[in-house]
Amino acid sequence: MDTVKFEDLGLDTRILRAITEMGFEEPSPIQAKAIPEVMSGRDVIGQAQTGTGKTAAFGIPLLQKIDPKNRKLQAIVLCPTRELAIQVADEIRRLCKFMHGIKVLPVYGGQDISIQIRSLKGGVQLVIGTPGRVMDHLRRHTLKFDELHTIVLDEADEMLNMGFREDIETILKDAPQERQTILFSATMPQPILDITRNYQKDAVMVRVVKKELTVKNIDQYYYEVKQKNKEEVLSRLIDMYNPKLSLVFCNTKKRVDELTEALKGRGYFAEGLHGDLKQSQRDRVMKGFRTGKTEILIATDVAARGIDVDDVEAVFNYDLPQDDEFYVHRIGRTGRAGRVGKAFTFVVGREVYKLKDIQRYCKTKIYAQPVPSLNDVTAIRLEKVMEEIEEIIKNEDLRSMMRVIERQINEEDYTAMDIAAAFLKKYMGEFEQNTLPKREDDFGDTGAEEGMVRLFINIGKKQKVRPGDILGAVAGESGIPGKLVGTIDMYDKYTFVEVPRENAADVLRAMKNTKIKGKSINVEPANGRM
Ligand code: ADP
Ligand code: MG
User: What is the pTM (predicted TM-score) of this model?
Assistant: First the structure.
């Protein structure tokens, strides 16, 4: 491909200066294709995945079209969310840093409208807004379309997904007939095509061909799992790879909520993000993720669109995406800025065939991985710890620490090896206790029958508990059929109950915070044969 340069596009020199300052070396493929078309004044449909520079693709020509001497509204960009409106406004403001007299204003729900009205009264030529809030301003006549010459629909598919279709159509109908209409979208489903047919004239389509949609710099793995084991496998992978920031995708809001609760329950710093959240909640969650306070962000495709966090180390497809393109969008959140990212995909049963389609579509390879055992988790974790240690040895001044160790060696009868090994054990031991959930095969010998695990419960005959109560609690809380519950041995102050090995972890988890006959209980694997 012959490379296009920004200098070849006939841009205003003040914009070229800004582009240089922003560090853009050359136009991205969608920019190279779209900028000349948009500059020609035609209606344009643009398609390219997230993160390909679509903002500048329409933002640059837009800025060149705006007359700074005219203080009236000349162009409007519609965006699906407040976050995106702010991001787009920021990017465009950077692009026009050296142009004088151009006012750019984001308007979105959740911000006091009177503040926006005051800013608008000052004369704004370019408004970036969410459809709902733009409609609001139109009704109040605080936005007027008399001199509007350009409308951009950014992330059009997302706006439709979020239910903005009617607002968008009203805005398009209200706008002057003589205008340029530009639509950008990552995907092109039928409703988008309908909009382009009804509201654009003789539009030219520019798209970055699928070959360029591929995913570089991302190691991709998949795991064949059972639906009910997903949470456990996810926890293990997170423990193993210990990514600083991970993004976990679920297919529905409900699953986002459930998984968020479950991971929080396991002690992870996790938060969920989906369309039902109030703007203030969204902002709080995003802020937590950006600052690293939240390490795991669980999101739906819609909510995650436009999240601009660069150092996501791992993306998890907790649910296989419904659409091939979504796979690309999702995992494209990692492996940015030259780093290598990781993408983990869970498939259940026949979904593995769908994965084949995805690989074909993305021209990529997704490698099968066995579900990690606890030993794997420990081994990988150990590797990571040793890497961290190496870094410290290489880069930090350890002299004062060495003096402490030296003193220990001299005063006590230890070797440096003893001390290092003890530190490692302490470090790894804490990790295991804190983060590793129990698993079917980790109970060892509890003195139960073959295939069963014997559990100890600290409640017995003295508390007027009968075997039926124990059976009811075990089956009721964990959901395993009562007939699978084995021998129940009751003593005065405690009880042993046997459950199938494969259900033992679930039972333990389910019984953690339950009460029997109104009394809080403690359940743990029995100590085994004496
Ligand atoms: P999209 O809207 O396609 O998801 P954005 O317009 O938000 O993508 O751009 C994603 C990131 O890439 C932004 O940080 C933007 O500043 C940067 N970017 C855009 N164009 C270029 C370019 N030509 N070279 C380098 N970085 C770019
Ligand atoms: Mg965008």
Answer: 0.50
